[in-house]
Amino acid sequence: MSAAEAHAARLKVQMIFQDPYASLNPRLRVDEIVGEAARIHGLVGNGDFDDYVSTQLERAGLDPALRQRYPHQFSGGQRQRIGIARALAVQPSMLVCDEAVAALDVSIQAQILNLFMDLREELNLTYLFISHDLGVVEHLSDRVVIMYLGRVVETATVEEVFQRPNHPYTQALLAEIPTLKSRHKTFTAIKGEIPSPLNPPSGCHFHPRCPHAMPRCKTEVPTLKGIAINHLSACHLNDMA
Ligand code: SF4
Q: Are 93 and 49 part of one and the same domain?
């Protein structure tokens, strides 16, 4: 791949950050924040700059008339929309969204999630959506990868993960989601503290907290194995099935 091709490929993947307050330069006006990268990369000329920025702002649900304002003049939800407009301005095909709604009020979260889904349809985007909120994951995802202390423990389609979770960690996560069906259910948190990622437990990282832990779990790292079509899980219990 040539340097120019590598450069173009990098533009195709853009990032939406968790903190809409820290991720915007407070000294730049909105039009500079949104349009600067597109201008630098030659996607828009000076003559078309205003129209180009207006299109990005409208796509993200913001009034283009606000383009001369600074980030501190916006709410958290509006700032996240500015971040989305900035990412879209370089015409990406993929957005990496790192806890992109976690810092927002719940009512605003729903608006931004709807915006993400509308933009996916409109622009044919792919998302890598990183989230601790399983409700958000179920709502937005096609395929889910569950990680524990830096290791992938399970991956499958969203339907498979939510209907037939295999790994004990995934099962414990899903058991913690409140549902209307189980109004009187007692909340049961996963037992134990999360170990330090700098000094993770031996064998299966989850063994100190796993209700099914066996002696081999302390010494042997479980590998990801297929347990159904397009469904992988890393748990020694699957060797006994
Ligand atoms: S490998 Fe052992 S400790 Fe790890 S999740 Fe499976 S049963 Fe639990």
A: yes
Please identify, by atom number, the ligand 1 atom nearest to the C-alpha of residue 207: 3
Give the pTM.
Answer: 0.86
Q: Which of 133, 164, 190 is the last residue of a domain?
A: 133
Whether residue 152 is found in the same domain as residue 126: no
235 in contact with ligand 1, CB cutoff 6 A: yes
Q: Which of 105, 133, 161 finishes a domain?
A: 133
Ligand 1 pocket member 134 (CB < 6 A):
no
Q: Which atom of ligand 1 is nearest to the CA of 216?
A: 2
User: What are 82-135's pLDDT values in tens digits?
Assistant: 999 999 999 999 999 999 999 898 889 999 999 999 999 999 999 999 999 998
Query: Are residues 124 and 20 located together in one domain of the fold?
Result: yes
List the one residue out of 153, 168, 16, 171 whose CA is nearest residue 80.
Answer: 16
How far lies 127's CA from each of 73, 76, 92, 120, 231, in Å? 29, 21, 11, 8, 20
In 3-state terms, what secondary structure has residue 206? Answer: coil
Pocket test for ligand 1, best of 236, 238, 239, 240 (most atoms within 8 A of CB): 236
Q: Which residue's CA is minimally distant from atom 3 of ligand 1?
A: 207
How many structural domains is the chain composed of? 2
